[in-house]
Design brief:
Blueprint: H1 2-66, H2 71-97, H3 101-118, H4 120-135, E1 143-146, E2 149-156, E3 160-164, E4 170-174, H5 175-180, E5 183-185, E6 191-193, E7 196-200, H6 206-218, E8 230-237, E9 240-246, E10 248-250, H7 254-271
Antiparallel strand pairs: 1-2, 1-5, 2-3, 3-4, 6-10, 7-9, 8-9
Helix pairs in contact: 1-2, 6-7
Length: 288
């Protein structure tokens, strides 16, 4: 009897195991039949989507190259486009598989808002850098004056612009305030006019002083012959005649001409007996 009972229990357990296995197989089959088309569709959608993303990025890259945009701007924009399209593809695939994309989209938006708040200042610099790289108010090598800084642009980044000053100081200007402020580009038209002011005695013949100054400036190897240097009367008064001395040069030679032209003109005037202004003071004495 005990043996019969053991056999009966074993048979029942075997039947239960078989039923469980059959149920599991049935569920797997049902799952496969139900989700196989979705999985296959998701795989096909992924393959087609990645191919389309590569094509779109390639077309945008050709467009940016044709417009001759800055390489750093090209790289940045292409990265943004690729990341955005990849996220969109991922969300779409999740929707095909059957995952609720509403919560996932809300998570992405929330993360974006949090990151944007944390990087508020940096995003302003980023936007300013992108705008300047697109509209190009200056380029690397130009001499500019902006945000109280004058110097040559040595590097133009997405977040900062690097300027090398005449004192050989490297200044990093954030692109946010730079893009919204006044920018003076001294190099846009190729030649720079160096504005100097020098004074002569009111008894000196102006035309003589002008011809001597122009001849002296033309001896400077970095002063351009065309356009020719200019000397004009700026102001008459205060016991002197103030002249505007204006030689022209290329951007790279600005400071050499700025200092060198003044020295040459001063020496030439001394040689030709052209006197500078003599300070004088009028003293009025009142009698008691």
């Amino acid at each position: 009897m005990q043996l019969l009972q053991v056999l009966t229990d074993t048979k029942q357990k075997a039947e239960v195991t078989i039923d469980m296995a059959t149920g599991l197989v049935s569920k797997i089959v049902d799952f496969t039949i139900g989700y196989a088309p979705k999985i296959v569709g998701a795989i096909l959608f992924y393959l087609i989507g990645t191919w389309l993303i590569k094509k779109m990025v390639s077309l945008i890259a050709k467009f940016l190259q044709a417009k001759d945009y800055d390489p750093s701007l090209e790289s940045f924009l292409l990265s943004i486009v690729k990341v955005a399209l990849t996220i969109l593809l991922f969300v779409s695939i999740m929707g095909i598989v059957g995952v609720d994309t509403g919560a996932f989209s809300a998570l992405i938006v929330g993360a974006g808002v949090a990151i944007g708040g944390a990087l508020n200042g940096s995003l302003g610099n980023l936007a300013g850098g992108v705008m300047m790289l697109i509209f190009k108010p200056f380029k690397v090598g130009d001499m500019i004056e902006a945000q109280g800084i004058t110097g040559m642009v040595s590097e133009q980044g997405v977040f900062n612009t690097t300027v090398l000053t005449p004192e050989n100081k490297t200044v990093f200007i954030p692109n946010g305030p730079l893009s919204t402020g006044v920018i003076t580009n001294y190099t846009s038209y190729g030649n720079l006019r160096v504005d100097l002011t020098m004074a002569i005695s009111p008894n000196t013949e102006i035309e003589t002083a002008r011809s001597v100054a122009i001849a002296a400036m033309l001896t400077h190897p970095k002063v351009l012959k065309t356009p020719s240097p200019e000397v004009n009367v700026l102001k008459v008064g205060d016991g002197m005649v103030t002249l505007a001395i204006r030689p022209y040069c290329v951007q790279a030679d600005y400071w050499d001409v700025y200092f060198g032209a003044q020295e040459l003109v001063k020496n030439a005037w001394d040689k030709h007996g052209i006197d500078g202004p003599t300070p004088h003071r009028v003293v009025i004495t009142k009698s008691a």
